[in-house]
């Protein structure tokens, strides 16, 4: 018997168990080849990846350590007597191998795999194998089965008495594309319920939840969220309090650092979350551009078909809009700068970024046309009227008031540097991926005031020495990371003599 | 700046860096989304997966910890000032993504990927993604390119003045198939040089190195190995002292626990190691059976073609022999028991397992026919003569004497239990995978005396209550693991009334 010990090491989402090499009850090396153990006590079982410990200060020989997340999941007190077992392979293992071998799986197999993933019975390596195997071969029927399995694996929300629950989702990759914070107030002002839950950034410089948190509290529990939606018709909260499609969080945690993005996984990820959130009508914003997630019109068409097929099959009324993904939207990248742009649009200020305004109106117009009472084609005009009249701003202020003040005052980062053009010419292109990366290195979203302020957009004339954008940061080390990356390549292509700056 | 600290945690082959959440120089969370950091000092750079630490007893806030293997690889003393950087993506990243996306790679791409893997610049997740992507689509030209890249990535051996360097390799999966220890003395007794390096078991109950270690020292450095081969014409040593095809070790460390085995990877793995070891002629033993690695004659034929294609292209004279893979070979499974069987064959004892003897003779005969001086078809008779005359035994004794005595005396495990038939009938099949697993759980190869002694083989008549095999173990906890697994399903199918035991 071993005594359970909590080890103060955070191993991301993977369960890690620690066993001393000097352990006398179990031979650590015998578990090493297979890499996994099953920790057992009082009916609790937990499968974990095994690390061996040589330092009694970290773990005494008669103890079994669990990483922070694994300890929390196991749910027993330190000192509890535990024993080790060789792990029983997860039920879905055969299905996983069939998928790796290139075979088509049925819905039962996907349910078993997703259930094991949601319960953290897969390690990172197995999750990666599943993702790559799905990416290499997956039928539309399998994408549908996967979506259903993911939607059913966690909590599901229902909105009784509300036949129409609308939502929007952008497939991402375009910095500054913060349309949700403009669309929600417009749609709610019209009277369509839009209970928006958003994520925080994982590898990007800002998620909608991070940006909204500059203006208001976003950590709202479910009863409060229901009350806010009942009163205001909409909300903009962080989705982390509701465990919608938990397998998706695990898949994303492996997919993002690896930077693999498959169409099928994207569709299953987005639609399973929306279905579980109780949405009935959904508009998907799909930016297309050379540095966006979707790069060509052909890709966009195929992805749209897949969204439509799965959406129809799971009972979601869904429309896909293709948008310009050739450069960042608005001027700010990072929570504080993006919140500034959003408020400028809602306040109808003269200096508000026109592209953010027009994209938001187009999306809101599309959503408003889900309203049977609205005349076909009248959505855009109605959206514009609600924005121009100040109704959307008033709705946003109501939502902010109901959600409460932000947890801390966020200010623009005090360290700043301008990156300048090295030749005269015209801005030909801006690399979305690179701008996001620079803003992230500058500290966004952890410092909400870190990020990038774009001073030139595609088509703008520039002179050599004129600033293209400004980097903001709060901390010296991160300021250097960001400036270093920008110095390697600015992310801007300027055509003067035909050769682009980069 | 952070001070370098060695953390007494062994994380298998993956580099892991530890950073305190309370660190003031770097914001731990900013690195978390991407999962990786680059540790930099005095021109040394190391890419590592990041774990965050909440316990100052494990890691003070101003330190950067490295796991044992990562610390050794980084090669600097504790206390050295280090800084962190965002990792530059490995050069081969684009190639990896192209492979994941299902594209064909050229040799340059494979060389870059294998170079990064051999230098531990990939995490487990990336290695898994590479393996699964290769498994889902890979041309024969790609398999060849991968083999070349792997062979060239590490050390290579040359045997000057020896135009013919022979070797054999079994693709594995059949417990007890310890033919190398019989083939080497026969072939060396004939006069063909056979410098055999073998591996220790990773997930199996014994590798050839583990079994040979019951009889002699196997941890031999390269100069000593050369001297032994010069004197005796052969050796049976552990390959770990020579860094042949180091990327293969990394690939195997991810592949085995995940239990994915692709044909292409197997060919590249085996042939790259043989090529790097300086072999010129190779016989491959390919057992085919329902619980072996190769399950059907069709699979065997396709795999044989792939071995021949790649072998020819890299200048290895190669012959593939298909053998019976329907049950374990010999009677013992586990180092001590297998060494017993091997010596019984070499000593021409009446109770020597006939199947192990015949398989070894067939393989040795094939190898002997590489000798231009030997008449075509005369290999088997020559092998039999060398074994029957005691020449092979004498050669084995010479090799053992040259390698030196074993590091410790290995005895059969004192705990034992017989697993009995539950009905009268005849043994229909023995599950190789399950027998290996039971022997492994019993403690093999860590306790060389742990394992399984098979008392019945396929075709033998049995009566209800008669023992099928005996489990041996040294430690109580492992004895229970093995007996528990055997109680769930014995691994034997006995057909009495038409229904098999399992």
TrEMBL record, chains A, B:
Signal peptide feature range: none
Catalytic activities: thymidine + phosphate = 2-deoxy-alpha-D-ribose 1-phosphate + thymine
UniProt-listed SMART domains: PYNP_C
InterPro entries: Glycosyl_Trfase_fam3 (IPR000312), Glycosyl_Trfase_fam3_N_dom (IPR017459), Glycosyl_Trfase_fam3_N_dom_sf (IPR036320), Nuc_phospho_transferase (IPR035902), PYNP-like_C_sf (IPR036566), PYNP_C (IPR013102), Pyrmidine_PPase_CS (IPR017872), Thym_Pase_Put (IPR028579)
GO molecular function, one term: thymidine phosphorylase activity
Keyword Glycosyltransferase: yes
Coiled-coil region(s): none
UniProt domain Pyrimidine nucleoside phosphorylase C-terminal: residue ranges: 426-493
Pfam family name, one: Glycos_transf_3
Family annotation (PANTHER family): THYMIDINE PHOSPHORYLASE
HAMAP family for the chain: Thymid_phosp_2
Similarity annotation: Belongs to the thymidine/pyrimidine-nucleoside phosphorylase family. Type 2 subfamily.
Name of the protein: Putative thymidine phosphorylase
Organism name: Niveispirillum lacus
Lineage: Bacteria, Pseudomonadati, Pseudomonadota, Alphaproteobacteria, Rhodospirillales
């Amino acid at each position: 018997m071993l005594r359970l010990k909590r080890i103060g090491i955070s191993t991301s989402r993977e369960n890690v168990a620690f066993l001393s090499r000097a352990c006398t009850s179990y031979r650590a090396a015998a578990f090493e080849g297979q890499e996994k153990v099953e920790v057992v006590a009082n009916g609790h079982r937990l499968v974990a990846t095994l690390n061996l410990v040589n330092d009694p200060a970290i773990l005494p020989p008669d103890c079994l350590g669990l990483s922070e997340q694994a300890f929390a999941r196991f749910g027993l007190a330190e000192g509890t007597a535990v024993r080790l077992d060789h792990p029983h392979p997860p039920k879905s293992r055969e299905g996983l191998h069939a998928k790796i071998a290139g075979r088509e799986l049925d819905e039962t197999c996907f349910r078993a795999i997703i259930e094991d993933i949601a319960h953290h019975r897969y390690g990172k390596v197995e999750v990666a194998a599943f993702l790559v195997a799905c990416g290499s071969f997956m039928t539309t029927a399998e994408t549908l089965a996967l979506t259903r399995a993911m939607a059913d694996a966690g909590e599901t929300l229902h909105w009784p008495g509300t036949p129409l629950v609308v939502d929007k989702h952008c497939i991402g990759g375009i910095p500054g594309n913060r349309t949700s914070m403009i669309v929600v107030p417009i749609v709610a002002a019209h009277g369509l319920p839009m209970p928006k839950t958003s994520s925080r950034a994982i590898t990007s410089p800002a998620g909608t939840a991070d940006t909204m948190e500059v203006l208001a509290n976003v950590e709202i529990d479910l009863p409060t969220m229901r009350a806010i939606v009942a009163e205001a018709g909409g909300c903009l909260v962080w989705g982390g309090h509701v465990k919608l499609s938990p397998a998706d969080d695990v898949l994303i945690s492996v997919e993002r650092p690896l930077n693999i993005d498959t169409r099928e996984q994207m569709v299953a990820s987005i639609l399973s979350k929306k279905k579980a959130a109780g949405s009935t009508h959904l508009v998907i914003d799909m930016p297309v551009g050379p540095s966006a997630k979707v790069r060509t019109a052909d890709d966009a068409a195929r992805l749209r078909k897949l969204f439509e097929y799965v959406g129809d099959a799971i009972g979601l009324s869904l429309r896909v809009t293709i948008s310009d993904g050739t450069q960042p939207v608005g001027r700010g990248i990072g929570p504080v700068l993006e919140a500034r742009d959003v408020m400028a649009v809602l306040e109808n200020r003269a200096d508000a970024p026109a592209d953010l305004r027009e994209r938001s109106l187009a999306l809101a117009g599309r959503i408003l046309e889900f309203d049977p009472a609205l005349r076909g084609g009248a959505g855009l005009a109605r959206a514009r009227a609600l924005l121009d009249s100040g109704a959307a701003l008033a709705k946003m202020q109501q939502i902010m008031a109901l959600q409460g003040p932000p947890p801390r005052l966020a200010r623009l980062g005090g360290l700043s540097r301008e990156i300048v053009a090295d030749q005269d010419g015209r801005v030909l292109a801006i690399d979305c991926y690179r701008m996001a990366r620079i803003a992230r290195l500058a500290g966004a979203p952890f410092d909400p005031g870190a990020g990038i302020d774009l001073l030139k957009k595609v088509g703008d004339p520039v002179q050599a020495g004129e600033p293209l954008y400004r980097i903001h940061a709060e901390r010296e080390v991160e300021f250097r990371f960001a400036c270093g990356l920008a110095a390697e390549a600015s992310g801007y292509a300027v055509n003067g003599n035909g050769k682009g700056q980069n």
